[in-house]
Amino acid sequence: MAKINFDEKELQGQGMYAFEGTWYGAPYGPIEQLSPPISPVENFKSCLAGEAYEWMPDCSCDLVDITPHCIPDVDASDYEGGIDTFGVKWVALENGLPAMVEPGKPVLKDISDWKNLAWPDVASWDWEACGKRYQEKIGDGRIKRGIMLSSYFERLISLMDFEGAAMALVEDPEEVEEFFDKLTDYHLEVVNHYKKYFDVDVIMAHDDWAAQRSPFFSINTVRTLLVPQYKRFVQHCHDLGIYFTLHSCGNGKILAPTMIEAGVDFWQLQENAMDLEEVVSLYGDTIGLESYFEVPADDTEAKAFIINKIQIMSKAKKPMISFFDLQESRSFDVRRFVYEQQRKAALAKTN
Amino acid sequence: MSSIEEIKVLVETGKSKKVAAAVQEALNDGEKAQDILDAMIASMGVVGDKFSSAEIFVPEMLIAAKSMSKGVEVLKPIMAGENSNFLGTCIMGTVAGDLHDIGKNLVVMMLESAGFDMVDLGVDVPAEKFVEAIKENDNVVLVACSGLLTTTMPALKEAVQTIKTAYPEMKVIVGGAPVTQEYANEIGADGYAPDAGSSASKAKELIGA
Question: Which residues of A touch B59 (CB under 8 A)?
Answer without folding.
Answer: 166-167, 169-170, 216-217, 221
